[in-house]
Design goal:
The chain is α/β, with parallel strands linked by helices and about 375 residues long. It is built from 15 helices and 16 strands. InterPro entries: ArchSynthase1/Queuine_TRR, TGT, TGT-like_sf, tRNA_ribo_trans-like.
Length: about 375
């Protein structure tokens, strides 16, 4: 029996988007879903109780960062990541691959794995498919990710072809090294950049290995959004309809809606928490930078259409004051709002799928948010 099971509830007649449910050892959650990112076993400034309150059914943590601090042994000794951080719902851990390729300037890719330097102190480290599985097995997440090569954008066809072939070989090694398949579901990651033939090859290789779920990797790495959407259009149909599909590293409202329309079930991104710390907020009418001078005497809520804790209790003027003074409470308020906004947006997306009107919802949302305007500001 597999640790992860996907249940298709409904397909939107207007767009083909999927309403589903993913069952895990720590409960189930409806999809399409946005997963808040808790890099170091915490979603920055948020308590687990607050995440439950705002409706989060699954969060993401980072294998690379937890391997370095506090170390996999300490988390395992605590009884696993769920007990360590007092979170009783689902957790997905990435493989560490993205951090190795993005944080370390000094890295050497070999067939066995990747040699690189610790971004904290410069120590030499080595991460392989086997080591990535060992760490994630120790952490005890519900969903684990295969260790893949994360190529840059743009990359040549030849470079990407070698990368896809290596990622496929590494995926097979991950399956062989995975020690707890009944407790933890391992997802494969489809690579191939913007090249359709390479995406087809990568998907074919990984589907043949019969993972319980699949991610589309190598997107949201600097490519234009029209390229990301085009890649999704020819990649998601290659993946099994009876398994969840995860688009890694995507969290802007427009991309969440467009990804769902193209058959994606799961999303994650640091975007809502990262921009919140700078006072940038997502609202029903677009992007709001609360530090701007025009909000100094604005005693209304961040978003009059939002019923989150922040919007019910605090004004733009007060939050602006806190952010400008680097007060932690200000960051808590803005972080809470942004996460709540995206989680509620995904609720609206799921409801629109139920009602067979996700295409209409997209048009209404984009018009209200300003995405249809020339030179629209995004995040």
């Amino acid at each position: 029996m597999t640790a992860i099971r996907y249940e298709l509830i409904k397909t939107c007649k207007q767009t083909g988007a999927r309403l589903g449910r993913v069952h895990t050892p720590h409960g189930s959650f409806e999809t399409p879903v946005f997963m808040p990112v808790g890099t170091l076993a915490t979603v920055k400034t948020m308590s687990p109780e607050e995440l439950v309150e705002m409706g989060a059914g699954i969060i993401l943590s980072n294998t690379y960062h937890l391997w370095l601090r506090p170390g996999q042994e300490i988390v395992e000794e605590a009884g696993g990541l769920h007990k360590f951080m007092n979170w009783d719902r689902a957790i997905l851990t990435d493989s560490g691959g993205f951090q190795v390729f993005s944080l370390s300037e000094f890295r050497k890719i070999e067939e066995e794995g990747v040699h690189f330097r610790n971004h904290l102190n410069g120590d030499k480290l080595f991460l392989s498919p086997e080591k990535a599985m060992e760490i994630q097995n120790s952490l005890g997440s519900d969903i684990m990710m295969a260790f893949d090569e994360c190529p840059p954008y743009p990359a040549t066809y030849e470079y990407m072809q070698k990368s896809v072939e290596r990622t496929s070989r590494w995926a097979e090694r991950c399956l062989q090294a995975h020690k707890r398949p009944k407790d933890q579901g391992l997802f494969g990651i489809v690579q191939g950049g913007e090249y359709e033939e390479l995406r087809k090859q990568s998907a074919k290789d990984l589907v043949s290995l019969d993972f319980p779920g699949y991610a589309v990797g190598g997107l949201s790495v600097g490519e234009p959004k029209d390229i990301m959407n085009r890649v999704l259009e020819f990649t998601t149909p290659l993946l099994p309809a009876n398994k969840p599909r995860y688009l890694m590293g995507v969290g802007s409202p427009d991309s969440l809606i467009d990804g769902a329309i193209r058959g994606i079930d799961m999303f994650d991104c640091v975007l809502p928490t990262r921009i919140a710390r700078n006072g940038t907020l997502m609202t029903s009418e677009g992007r709001l930078v609360v530090k701007n001078a025009k909000f100094a005497r604005d005693f209304g809520p961040i978003d009059e259409h939002c019923d989150c804790y922040t919007c019910r209790n605090y004004s733009r003027a007060y939050i602006r004051h806190l952010i400008r003074c680097d007060e932690t409470f200000g960051i808590r308020l803005t972080t809470y709002h942004n996460l709540y906004f995206l989680l509620k947006l995904m609720e609206q997306v799921r409801q629109a799928i139920r009602e067979d009107r996700l295409g209409d919802f997209r048009e209404e949302f984009f018009e209200r948010y300003g995405f249809n305007k020339p030179n629209a500001k995004n995040f």
